Amino acid sequence: MSRGYFPHNKISAPPLDSSLLLRTFLASRASMTETFPSHGAAQQQTFTHHLHHSGNREDAIMAESSTEHRPLLQRAPDGAHGQQTSSPPKPTRLDYESTVARAEVYISVEPEMEPDDASLTGNLTNCDGAPSGDIRSSQYQPERLKTVLAFGFMSFCMFCTTLALAIVHDRLPDTDPLPDVVFDWVPQYDVGLTISEYLLVCSVWMSIFLVIFHRYRWIIFRRLFIIIGLLYFGRSITMLVTAVPVANTDYYCSPKLNHTSALAILERIGKLIGGLGLSFNGLHTYCGDYIYSGHTCMLVLSALVMTEYAPRKLIPIVVLSYLFAVTGIVMVSVSRGHYTVDIIVAYYITTRIFWMYHSMVANASLKEFGPTNYFTNVCWFRLMRFCEANVAVGKLPKHYTWPLPFPRRWQQSRWEYQN
Q1: 399 is catalytic
Q2: How buried is 405 (Cβ within 10 angstroms: 0-12 exposed, 13-18 middle, 19+ buried)?
Q3: Between the CA atoms of 44, 47, 48 and 49, what dihedral angle is there, to the nearest 10 degrees?
Q4: Residue 411 burial class via C-beta count within 10 angstroms: exposed 0-12, middle 13-18, buried 19 and up
Q5: Where are the beta strands (DSSP E) in 249-320?
Q6: Peptide bond into 292 cis (omega under 30)
Q7: Which of 142, 235, 243, 344 is the most exposed place for a label (fewest CB within 10 A)?
Q8: Alpha carbon distance 343, 333 (integer Å)
Q9: Helix (H, G, I), strand (E, B) or coil at 243
Q10: 299 with 202: CB under 8 angstroms?
């Protein structure tokens, strides 16, 4: 094992059933010794050495004692003077080959093993201390250019969302908030929106740190860029087609313009992008981004990322991400930041897109065109195929590496866990 390589879950081969092997070999050897004494003794010695080498000393002693000093020819009984025992029949070439083949099969039988994450990576190292012969590395190519293109897709969709908000702001109806069951039963708590956004920031950064340390970070980032882009592009459409009144009448909204110009819209877009769509920095002063909730989308997505890509040893952090998500969603609702329908729709769309995407990449039949694969009717199916064309089918192994080029002694460190 090389310095800096720390596998946490070592997979060992299943033990050989030597007792069953011993019984079958002894049965074959009994008939073989009578026919070919010299060859049977040689096979007995080879098999006993195999048992000693594999650590099955009790079975080896049993094999030795069961055949030790076994006479090859029986002596004539007392009183039968002058009588000789009948000699065994002369064997044929076919008998010899079939008997030897059976003995060799019994001796060389080994259980088959299914390859898994740990067995595929192995512990072989080269002269530099880096693992060699890694089969997984060829199945999960980073394809950085595709990741850059996915980031461009996400950026375009986010721009569409800010453009829609900049336009919808002047189309808001000046009426009372719509009836909402949570608004009727729960008192308004304005600070809840700020609490929700702080929890949102913590959840997003937790997910980012997890993905950065993942060995296949480029693949995961590519998937997240596509999913976030789809969520925000759909949000831009729902905001444009339906404008609803402001849910919180105490929330400050910038004055409307009688004639919205292209320059005013660009100024609004720049202000929204500078504030990252958050209100606690005072830059989100445009209203109308209700259907559906962007806060809920990111909180739920962060929890799903932690569930999918975090190892079992980080279950407390995964649970913490779910607590952040639930608390943040509740705070958005009680602060009147969104209507309840916005939250429900956001949760449904986020979970469906995430689960559909990961189901497609984890199953070969769902990744290809076919008459029984109805996922091919999804508008982003070809985009998924383009991004996942050279990625092996199945869940990504939960392997982690040090992402930075310094310090040098940590560059070869690995942490590997079972899925």
Answers
A1: no
A2: exposed
A3: 120
A4: middle
A5: none
A6: yes
A7: 344
A8: 8
A9: coil
A10: no
What is the band of 74 on the pLDDT scale with cuts at 50, 70, 90? very low
Per residue in 179-227, pLDDT (tens digit) is 999 988 988 888 888 899 999 999 999 999 999 999 999 999 999 999 9
Say if CB 247 and CB 177 are below 8 A apart. yes
Question: CA-CA-CA-CA torsion for 134, 139, 144, 149, nearest 10 degrees?
Answer: -170
Catalytic pick among 50, 169, 284, 295: 295
Categorise residue 175: left if φ over 0, alpha if ψ from -120 to 50, beta otherwise: beta
Q: Residue 26: count other Cβ atoms within 10 Å of its Cβ.
A: 16
**Which one of 50, 284, 338, 399 is the catalytic residue?**
338
Can you say whether the dihedral through the CA atoms of 45, 50, 55, 60 is positive or negative?
A: negative
Cα–Cα distance, 271 to 281 (Å, whole number): 11
Which two tokens mark 371?
């008459």
Q: Is 342 a catalytic residue?
A: yes
- Residue-level length of the chain: 419
pTM attached to this predicted model = 0.67
Element (H, E) at 64: helix 57-67
